[in-house]
Design a protein that fits this description.
With 194 residues, this protein is an alpha/beta fold. The protein has a domain at 10-115 and 140-157 and 183-192: Formyl transferase, N-terminal domain (Rossmann fold), CATH 3.40.50.170. 35% of the residues lie in helices and 23% in strands. It contains 6 helices and 7 strands. It has helices spanning 21-30, 52-57, 70-83, 100-105, 126-132, 168-192, and strands at 10-16, 37-44, 62-64, 88-91, 109-114, 137-144, 154-161. Helix 1 (21-30) runs parallel beside helix 6 (168-192). The longest helix has 25 residues, at 168-192.
């Protein structure tokens, strides 16, 4: 991994909707010596999202976005992203679809982690769909976000073997462990391409 000698770490913002395990993992990784980024801001579309406790614990500023008015929510977040010099937006279990306007207006890069081997199983209920189709493998993908759902260029992927006795819950846990491994690696890879 390249060391950032005499170079400041890149500011990132993380968007969440739920428990925030990927957020926690990204924060943890950001504290390592060879990490290339710092989590500067956290956004959530839910005021009771479990992941907000990590923002509070690590004293990272956060904002609750009211998506009842999507246009205003996106306008507000873009203002914060610009003000905090955010270069990369990381979607980590963020359950809202960003508008084409937001994607074009944000001048950095937007990446997402998705719990399937894209292009298979875009959208929701990925684990159950993989099981229903008797897949031998599933996994997770970090990809760039574009205006089509889960369709941006892949950055990193990790395969996970599906066992006979796996159900959606077991598979979800196995894949989440791999998500925690590849998201920080993918992020460093994106930063290296700057």
């Amino acid at each position: 991994m390249v060391r950032l000698i005499g170079r400041r770490k890149v500011n990132i913002a993380v968007f969440i909707s739920g428990t925030g395990s990927n957020l926690f993992n990204l924060i943890k990784y950001s504290k390592l010596k060879n990490s290339k980024y710092v989590v500067k801001y956290v956004f959530s579309d839910k005021k009771n999202a479990g992941g907000l406790k990590f923002a509070k614990k690590f004293k990272i500023p956060y904002e609750i976005l009211n998506y009842k008015n999507k246009k205003n929510a996106e306008k507000k977040s873009l203002k914060y992203l610009k003000f905090n010099n955010i270069k990369i937006v990381c979607l980590a279990g963020f359950m809202k679809i960003l508008s084409a306007t937001f994607i074009k207006s944000f001048k950095g890069k937007i990446i997402n982690i998705h719990p399937s081997l894209l292009p298979k199983y875009k959208g929701l209920n990925t684990h159950q769909r993989a099981l229903d189709n008797n897949e031998k493998f599933s996994g997770c993908t970090v990809h760039y976000v574009n205006t089509k759902l889960d369709s941006g260029k892949k950055i990193l992927q990790k395969k996970v073997k599906i066992n006979k006795n796996d159900n959606a819950k077991i598979l979800s846990k196995k894949i989440l462990r791999q998500e925690h491994k590849i998201y920080p690696l993918a992020l460093n890879k994106v930063i290296s391409s700057f």
